[in-house]
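Practice problem. Given the sequence and the SMILES for zinc ion, write out the predicted structure.
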Amino acid sequence: MTGSKMSQSQGSSFQAIQEYFQRQSCRYCYQPFAADGVQLLREEPGIMVVRVCCLECSRPLGVAIVGTNNKKAQAKKTKVSEWTKKDTQKFEKMPAINYDDVLAAHQFFNSLGSDWQRHLGR
Ligand SMILES: [Zn+2]
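Answer key:
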């Protein structure tokens, strides 16, 4: 476990995301991702936006919007729309994102499943 400067509230969720990507391999150099390669870009109630980058070959995997609370995520229309409009537009302009990245994010969601918070030990 490397030094973590995460906030107390969402730190365990972010660690779970880091641990997930540490079990994945870079599709370019086939090295596993490092915890330091996962950056928390944005943190909102029930949602985290992370950017994943391979530290071995410096290639980005992309940006993933991760729901950390499934019940609240269903009501996100009112709560989150303000920044998603802005930020998703910003993310869309980033060249790092392509179909594969979106696919990876979806696979990420699927692998977490509906009960992934059970792994967080809350
Ligand atoms: Zn790599």
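Check your answer against the key. Residues 26, 28-29, 31, 54, 56-57, 59 surround zinc ion (CB under 6 Å).
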